[in-house]
Amino acid sequence: MLIKVCLNGSRKPGDHPALPITPAELAADAHRAVQAGAGACHAHPRGQDGVETLDPGACDVVALAIRKACPGVPIGFSTATWIEPDQTDRLELIRGWVERPDFASVNFSDPGVLELCRLLRRLGIGIEAGVWTVADAEALSDSGYSRQLVRVLVEPQDIEPVEAEATAAAISAALDHAGVDAPRLYHGYGMATWRVMEFALDGGWDIRVGLEDTLHLPDATIASGNAELVAVALEMARKIGRLHGGLATEQEAGHQQHGALQTVSWRCTRRLAGA
Question: In the CATH scheme, what is the homologous superfamily, with its name and number, of domain 3-272?
Answer without folding.
Answer: Aldolase class I (3.20.20.70)
